[in-house]
Predict the 3D structure of the following.
Amino acid sequence: MAKPNYAFEKRKRELEQKRKKEEKLQRKLQNKQAKEGEGAEPAAAPEADTPPA
């Protein structure tokens, strides 16, 4: 019988959590932009939220 690879499973869970978090952030930004309307400020908002590389 094969030995379970817990590190792989953990990494898979972490990637799934990260993906869901990113999707949630994108939805929040879209909702915020929809409430503010189509203007110059919403286009600049995602750049401000990205961390420096």
